[in-house]
Amino acid sequence: MKIAVIPARGGSKRIPRKNIKEFCGKPMIARSIEAAYESGCFDKVIVSTDDQEIAEVAKDYGAEIPFLRPRELSDDYTGTMPVIAHAIEWFEAQNENVDLACCIYATAPFVSADDIKTGLNVMESESLDFAFTVTSYAFPIQRAIKISSTNRVEMFHPELFNVRSQDLEEAWHDAGQFYWGTSLAWKENKPIFGTSSAPIVLPRHRVQDIDTPEDWTRAELLFKIMNPNGID
């Protein structure tokens, strides 16, 4: 069985209730649920939440809520890995075997059904623990600078000051949209950023982390530019 697990706890502090806050006409979480179903990859699309209101909104958009997430997995310090492992183990306790699980973040309005399908194809064609979305940095990270406590500037890598930008190795970062993984990899807490993971490369304009109100505003502007007729 292949499942999509959308983690959505109720305790967001920087953007209160961000998982169900309206984003360009729909609750934010609805876009992840719809992309999961549109992909056609899953036997079940579930939302793992500790919050009854989030659960009801998720149900309205077709997601299953087979359980409410335990309190010990719903605080500010719980990572993604134990949340997905908990969902897998819950199904196993019901005698339903999970082969692959895809964590899709609830605040990923640019997540694409086609990209989710690409991730599944990669997982099924190669021997991997994980496949997840990445995008490139817009500026060479080797030229990054820091500001000191005395308000002065210095490079992290001053030895690279005279190296041309085009001669520096391109760097990538997690795009924060979805993570395909084997059941075993999730349960054994294997490293996602490792040699048994494959990248699903996304263009930078379809990637926006949403942690602050500024992030939210930028994401809405990008979404409206890409969907000028209100069609998503």
TrEMBL record:
<dbReference type="InterPro" id="IPR020039">
    <property type="entry name" value="PseF"/>
</dbReference>
<protein>
    <submittedName>
        <fullName>N-acylneuraminate cytidylyltransferase</fullName>
    </submittedName>
</protein>
<keyword id="KW-0548">Nucleotidyltransferase</keyword>
<keyword id="KW-0808">Transferase</keyword>
<dbReference type="InterPro" id="IPR050793">
    <property type="entry name" value="CMP-NeuNAc_synthase"/>
</dbReference>
<dbReference type="Pfam" id="PF02348">
    <property type="entry name" value="CTP_transf_3"/>
</dbReference>
<dbReference type="InterPro" id="IPR029044">
    <property type="entry name" value="Nucleotide-diphossugar_trans"/>
</dbReference>
<dbReference type="InterPro" id="IPR003329">
    <property type="entry name" value="Cytidylyl_trans"/>
</dbReference>
<dbReference type="GO" id="GO:0008781">
    <property type="term" value="F:N-acylneuraminate cytidylyltransferase activity"/>
</dbReference>
